[in-house]
């Protein structure tokens, strides 16, 4: 792949996700199955808008099915899946439509609350859409009107998954097929922090004294589409809340409003200032403790600890009638740790949301700071 980014004065090559690999392997296998001709390169579209031309490997062609693989390339930001083969086996079926299955090395989901259905393969929504989109084009081009069964596999995924958080999330037996953009963008932590600093510098240079921040794409979408705030001058902090707060103080901002998904923001309630899972995966522990303090039985606390996502925790809190009490405890602690980090030099606030339940909770000054970023106020 010949897409690059400039980071810290270096030219770094981008890669492509397991989702793009699965899509390309599926498309190549379908093309060979429906045309009877070998495919040397396959082209797919990505949500990022980048077109990939990838080379299928290890093709096995029969009358009723074709298997081939695409080798994962993480670019200059390699991870545990770099270099592994992602296979797709495509078979003809009498039933119309496209059926997507998981084979060896692809995890299967055992707990609710994730983006994938329980008992189904851990193939996330965006890769699913990519696969269906490309296969429908192939079927239309070939004039094929029956169905296809697609099985994605990654034999090396069985061992690789043991190094990930998949087992804790209830994804067993393999890796997940992931990717929201289709592209792996190589950026070190230092480069990400420096990029955030550049954004903050620009806001400060424009005379802005009120900083609006979200972690990433989920926060951006929620802030714009649900809260209706003006995000033109917003900053993305990724996982680096500590560095964000320190730099906001250094640059002389008066207020800072952080909009975050509960899976990220709840970690702040425990003083965790880098929310990446490799540093701390303590999403359920605080809520379990607060639930126990609210009077639930130990069994319920254990149930909360075992939840794979904060959305599942919310479901339990609502069932037990302690949602407001627990969330209030979480937001109070978030407020404390944010103010502790900035030494009370600027006014901070946070709003915690869920893609399922909407706004979950706010710290004390959140409503006041939200008003500073309303579109009507800024446009007026």
Give a description of the structure.
With 380 residues, this protein is α/β, with parallel strands linked by helices. It has two domains: 4-184, CbiD-like; 189-379, no CATH class. Helix content is 38%, strand content 23%. The protein has 14 helices and 20 strands. α1 (18-35) packs parallel to α2 (125-142), α5 (189-205) runs parallel beside α7 and α9 crosses α12 (323-342). The radius of gyration is 23 Å and the shape is globular. The model has no long low-confidence stretch (mean pLDDT 92).
Rounded average pLDDT: 92
Q: Strand arrangement, largest sheet?
A: 6-7-8-12-9
What is the total tally of β strands? 20
Structural class: alpha/beta
Work out the helix count: 14
Using brief descriptors, characterize the structure shown:
alpha/beta, five-stranded mixed beta sheet, CbiD-like, 23% strand, 2 domains, 380 residues
SSE map:
Blueprint: E1 4-7, E2 10-13, E3 15-16, H1 18-35, E4 42-45, E5 51-54, E6 57-61, E7 65-71, E8 85-93, E9 97-102, E10 105-106, E11 108-109, H2 125-142, E12 147-153, H3 157-160, H4 166-169, E13 171-172, E14 174-175, E15 183-184, H5 189-205, E16 210-214, H6 217-226, E17 235-236, H7 241-250, E18 255-261, H8 262-265, H9 285-293, H10 298-305, H11 310-320, H12 323-342, E19 347-354, E20 358-362, H13 366-370, H14 375-379
Parallel strand pairs: 9-12, 10-14, 16-17, 16-18, 18-19
Antiparallel strand pairs: 1-2, 3-15, 4-5, 6-7, 7-8, 8-12, 11-13, 19-20
